[in-house]
Amino acid sequence: MSTSTGFDIRRIGGRIGAEILGVTLADAIDPALVSDLNSALLEHKALVFRDQHLDDAAQLRFASLFGELTAAHPTVPSVEGQPSILPVDAEGTRANRWHTDVTFVRTPPKLSTLRGIVVPPYGGNTLIANTGAAYRDLPRPLRELADTLWAVHTNDYDYAAPPRNEKAAEHRKRFVSRKYRTAHPVVRVHPESGERGLFIGGFAQSLVGLGPSESRDLLRIFQSYVIRPENIVRIAWSPGDVVVFDNRITQHYAPDDYGDLPRLLHRVTVAGDAPVGVDGERSHVLEGDEAGHYTPAAA
Predict the structure, then answer these.
(1) Nearest to 167, CA basis, from 178, 177, 159, 175
(2) What per-residue confidence (pLDDT) applies to 156?
(3) Are residues 43 and 78 in contact, defined by beta-carbon separation less than 8 angstroms?
(4) What separation in angstroms does the CA of 224 have from each of 152, 216, 240?
(5) How many CB atoms lie within 10 A of CB 279?
(6) Helices (H), 151-297
(7) Residue 206 and residue 192: Cα distance in Å, rounded?
(8) What is the mean pLDDT of the chain?
(9) Once rounded to an integer, what is the mean pLDDT over residues 55-61?
(10) What's the mean pLDDT in 61-89?
(11) Which residues are catalytic?
(12) pLDDT value at residue 179
């Protein structure tokens, strides 16, 4: 499919994902093109730009077209000299569980950009799931229940595999060095499209008003709809590729299936607002602070 600004969109998944052809991200991108790309992101949830070979400065410029940038992470150090770039380095940690980025703070990112730098010759893919499709898949009684529930998200738990080495252990220690607990609606209303999606993932550890057993069971049921194969696109990386996904209505997962091979991506995130539930109530902090050092968003 061609757009008014001259690029092509090729769907790569039945319910999520599209490859963008005819756009060079290192070039100057005018507002009309940005608007078309944002519309494509709202529709397809995840966009892939092949063979871009950006440097850090170009990735930062591109991400900033979609809004104000966050710092790299609330607790984990950035790339040296680049406060808005997080190194996603297999040597440090492998976050091979389903999650939405940084949902343990009140204003998680609007979107995430990833750039492939070092890619293993096999494995090392990124899986991205459409949580809006998952919500629509729920039987009506489960949808109605989900609409009323709130989940507690926290960074103070082991969301990755046991530390592989000393560097991984240090990463984990830094990850939980500043504790956050935030209540988010289980069903988030997308601020641009109005679409409803399941806003849970690996940082969601319990449900407000329910005990540990009930929380685990219900979260497992809801999550099982998110990770249905039909709701997932699998992206195989090549060096130089750039992937953008809407953090408000997706989850992602990086399978640990490439042994001891190196893998390095750089992540830049765009500041988001506080999620809003079906009843119009916004997310709120339970423990920690507003993470103002991480995100400039004040909504």
Answers:
(1) 175
(2) 86
(3) no
(4) 18, 12, 33
(5) 10
(6) 166-175, 212-226
(7) 27
(8) 93
(9) 98
(10) 95
(11) 99, 101, 252, 267
(12) 93
Q: Is the pTM of this model over 0.90?
A: yes
Contacts of 134 (CB under 8 A, 6+ apart): 197, 198, 222, 225, 226, 228, 231
Which class for 4: exposed (0-12), middle (13-18), buried (19 or more C-beta within 10 A)? exposed
Torsion sign over Cα 24, 25, 26, 27: positive
Distance CA 187, CA 195 (A): 10
Q: Which two tokens stand for residue 86?
A: 């997080």
User: Cβ atoms within 10 A of the Cβ of 77, count?
Assistant: 12
Nearest in space to 131 (alpha carbons), one of 151, 114, 161, 156: 151
The tokens describing 280, both together, are 């119009």
State residue 170's pLDDT score. Answer: 73
pLDDT digits (tens, 9 = 90+) for 147-191: 999 999 999 876 445 666 666 667 667 777 789 999 999 999 999
Mean pLDDT of all residues in 284-290: 94
Q: Is the pLDDT of residue 298 over 60?
A: no
Q: Report residue 172 as tokens.
A: 């984990």
Chain mean position to CA 145: 25
Confidence band for 230, pLDDT divided at 50, 70 and 90: very high
Q: How far apart are CA 19 and CA 125, in angstroms?
A: 15
Give me 186's structure tokens.
Answer: 């289980």
Tokens of 93: 């940690």
Residue position matching structure tokens 């991984």: 168
Say which residue the tokens 């004040």 belong to: 298
DSSP, res 51: S
* CA 134 – CA 188 distance, rounded (Å): 12
232-259 pLDDT, tens digit per residue, is 999 999 999 999 999 999 999 999 999 9
What's the one-letter identity of residue 31?
A: P
Buried b (16+ CB within 10 A) or exposed e, 180-214: bbbbbbbbbbbeeeebbbbbbbbbbbbbeebeeee
